[in-house]
């Protein structure tokens, strides 16, 4: 049970339920292969059955951490910060993104887009989920659309999402890790037949890094 003061700070976005933070190589999407500091925020009710970070779902398991501490830690390591989850837009992202930018960092987000957009972003990676579709603003501002392909029906879902996203968004299809052997060849064929799409792989898992 949070104290009243901590709950107020969490509601304002001055404290966030931090699950983990680490410096690594971006493994997915447009910025694959680049160094970045990842900030993983707890809390998500989108509920993808294949999620590989289910321990992030319950925000109560992750202690509210002052955003100044998070920013100080990030500043030691990287010029680019990726805020992910969980679902980071569950929380008010305005304070932390402003503080990160004040400290000269580029700020990226990886989100399902299921909640109203808060924060300012240098790069907005939208990864929509069928369980809870994105809000319109997420489609409008996405720099990158990354659709996870778990089965053949997800190609149709991907096209539905591509039709909603802004015309400048870069389109990626990424196999769900447990289905990579089955779905990767299908994705390769699909991209070759539909070259507006690109292939994304979870290269960090192949490299055995976080």
UniProtKB/TrEMBL annotation:
Q: Which residues bind substrate?
A: 25-27, 40, 84, 210
Output the Pfam families linked to this UniProt entry: Radical_SAM
Pathway noted in the entry: Purine metabolism; 7-cyano-7-deazaguanine biosynthesis
Q: Does the keyword Iron-sulfur apply?
A: yes
Cofactor binding note of this UniProt entry: Binds 1 S-adenosyl-L-methionine per subunit. Binds 1 [4Fe-4S] cluster. The cluster is coordinated with 3 cysteines and an exchangeable S-adenosyl-L-methionine.
Q: Where is the Radical SAM core domain?
A: 31-210
The protein's annotated catalytic reaction(s) are:
6-carboxy-5,6,7,8-tetrahydropterin + H(+) = 7-carboxy-7-carbaguanine + NH4(+)
Asked if the keyword Iron belongs to this entry, the reply reads: yes
Question: What molecular functions are annotated in GO for this chain?
Answer: 4 iron, 4 sulfur cluster binding; carbon-nitrogen lyase activity; magnesium ion binding; S-adenosyl-L-methionine binding
Which residues of this UniProt protein bind [4Fe-4S] cluster? 44, 48, 51
Some GO term, biological process aspect, for this entry: which one? Answer: tRNA queuosine(34) biosynthetic process
Q: Which residues bind S-adenosyl-L-methionine?
A: 50-52, 86, 127-129
Q: What is its EC number?
A: 4.3.99.3
Q: What are the entry keywords?
A: 4Fe-4S, Iron, Iron-sulfur, Lyase, Magnesium, Metal-binding, Queuosine biosynthesis, S-adenosyl-L-methionine
- Report the cofactors: Mg(2+); S-adenosyl-L-methionine; [4Fe-4S] cluster
**May I ask which residue range the UniProt record assigns to the signal sequence?**
none
Under HAMAP family, the record lists: QueE (MF_00917)
**Record family assignment:** Belongs to the radical SAM superfamily. 7-carboxy-7-deazaguanine synthase family.
Its assembly, as annotated, is: Homodimer.
Enumerate the PANTHER family for this protein: 7-CARBOXY-7-DEAZAGUANINE SYNTHASE
What's the stated role of this polypeptide?
Catalyzes the complex heterocyclic radical-mediated conversion of 6-carboxy-5,6,7,8-tetrahydropterin (CPH4) to 7-carboxy-7-deazaguanine (CDG), a step common to the biosynthetic pathways of all 7-deazapurine-containing compounds.
> What is the designated name of this protein?
7-carboxy-7-deazaguanine synthase
Q: What organism is recorded for this protein?
A: Flavobacterium amnicola
């Amino acid at each position: 049970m949070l104290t009243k003061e901590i709950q107020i700070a969490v509601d304002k976005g001055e404290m966030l339920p931090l699950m983990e933070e680490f410096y690594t190589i971006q493994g997915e999407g447009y910025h694959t292969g680049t160094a970045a500091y990842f900030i993983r925020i707890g809390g998500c009710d989108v509920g993808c059955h294949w999620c590989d970070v289910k321990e992030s779902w319950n925000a109560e398991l992750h202690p509210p951490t002052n955003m100044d501490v998070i920013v100080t830690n990030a500043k030691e390591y990287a010029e680019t910060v990726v805020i992910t989850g969980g679902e980071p837009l569950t929380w008010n992202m305005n304070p932390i993104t402003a503080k990160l930018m004040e400290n000269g960092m580029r700020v990226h987000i990886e989100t399902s887009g299921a909640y109203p957009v808060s924060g300012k972003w240098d790069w907005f990676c939208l990864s929509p989920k069928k369980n809870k579709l994105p809000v319109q603003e997420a489609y409008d501002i996405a720099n990158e659309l990354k659709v996870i392909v778990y089965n053949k029906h997800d190609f149709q879902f991907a096209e539905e999402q591509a039709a909603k996203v802004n015309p400048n968004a870069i389109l990626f299809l990424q196999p769900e890790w447990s289905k990579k052997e089955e779905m990767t060849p299908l994705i390769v064929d699909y991209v070759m037949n539909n070259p507006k799409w690109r292939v994304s792989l979870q290269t960090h898992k192949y490299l055995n890094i976080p």
